Amino acid sequence: MKHIKLVILLLLGAVVVSCQKDFLEPVPSSGITSANYYTTADEVETAVINMYDGIQGVNSTDPDDNHGVQNEFYLTEMRSDNTRTKSQEGEAAQFESYNVAATNGIVSNYYASFYNVIFRANVVLANLGVVEDPKAAAKFEAEAKFVRAYAYFNLVRLFGDIPLIDRVITPSDTDVQFTRVATSSIYELIESDLTTAIAGLDNTYKTRASKAAAQALLAKVYLTEGNYLPAQNLCEDIINTGSFGLMDNFNDVFYSELNKEIIFAIGYLASPSSDSEYFSAEWMNGVGRSSGVNYVTSDAVGALDASGGDRTQYSYRIDPFQTSQNQVAKYFPNGDSGGADGKTFANDPTTAGNDWIVLRYADVLLMHVEAIMAGANETSNGAALTSFQKVRNRAGLTTPVTSVTKDDLLLERRVELAFENHRLFDLIRFGKAESVLSAYSANNGYGYTSSDLLLPIPQNEINISKGLMKQNPGY
């Protein structure tokens, strides 16, 4: 973990803080060691905010910077049948062709970035003793455990067995850093952390952890494990609060930020550039760290055209310069349309302020259907039909449904949540990844095999572990 070791050393010497739009923005400090900095609740809160800064990532062109969630679409959407590169060139094209190398820098960056997020969460947990107010301490613990669970849930689904680091470690703790533990142990920690988070949080924030965010994330964890009744109960807890709802206009979900549909989002600001994001510019081609990535596949276009309803016009658009190609339209930088030429934006598109939505209410409604279905191929349960119909009604698809099959639900999730990094995980959770991705790969001349459902452990981790870490099969 070369990157992680470096970050640990840096963070032990200084405290880095973030600017988020709907919570406290503390003043940065420097030249303060971890041994003497955390003495008050306010100081611990800077470490809390620093966790979200880690997820947000650094907007830069330096491949060694931790880019947080900004690289996630490569590892998720571009390994599904939803998106690809424009020209099938470069390191990015490894994802769509199912030919990811263990030396892939994007994979390495994501792995290091999210272990750095875990480190930041562990820093908060290690310093709760200085918080005199028990309520404040419980809230900080809940936030840190939500963030740690979120990071681990992403990592375990992408890499399988991984190191479990539940405390602050130093670079000398190689036995912890490089010992891969069973996924079941990772899920035990995730469940425990989210249970604590649910007990200690309310629904004050949308770009910080909340009770509903912890409930929704735990529901998805349970669905992944096939634990359906607890998942159903968690979804119904969120639904019954009355605190969330579907936006009337689908487009407003993405450009009316912090709206009633948002449960948890990663906050970005167009200024300063350190709090902005670049990935929406990359999707518009020719701007950002890369270009022509996350382009929409013909498979996804076909699904949206046939089943998207009102969502289709807001989900993709034809590339203005190459009309045989299609671009993601949910995240125009800063909400700009891109102008007539597709590249002219009112502001610098590489410093966009679009929040990245992690959990939203439509996802919860569809998870509710999935939980009630409980692994069966079909359901006509009234509560499931109600949740399913609400999502379709918003899309203008108002014909009443009398039953929902697993394929219906998977399709509805695809067109509702297209390009929001859910598709690959949905295919795996529904048990459809092997059949869908094999057919998709064969149709496009790609090289998918079952081992491609997991990413390789970054080769630099294997190298510096000195034989402690073993690679995933197929790499």
Automatic annotation (TrEMBL):
Lineage: Bacteria, Pseudomonadati, Bacteroidota, Flavobacteriia, Flavobacteriales
Ranges where the SusD-like N-terminal domain occurs: 45-223
Protein name: RagB/SusD family nutrient uptake outer membrane protein
Pfam family of the protein (one): SusD_RagB
Protein family according to the UniProt entry: Belongs to the SusD family.
GO cellular component, one term: cell outer membrane
Top-level taxon of the source organism: Bacteria
Signal sequence bounds: 1-21
PROSITE patterns named among the record's database cross-references: PROKAR_LIPOPROTEIN (PS51257)
Chief location of this protein within or outside the cell: membrane
Localization of this protein: Cell outer membrane
Organism: Cerina litoralis
InterPro entries, alphabetized: SusD-like_N (IPR033985), SusD_RagB_dom (IPR012944), TPR-like_helical_dom_sf (IPR011990)
Keyword entries, A-Z: Cell outer membrane, Membrane, Signal
Residue stretches making up the RagB/SusD domain: 349-475
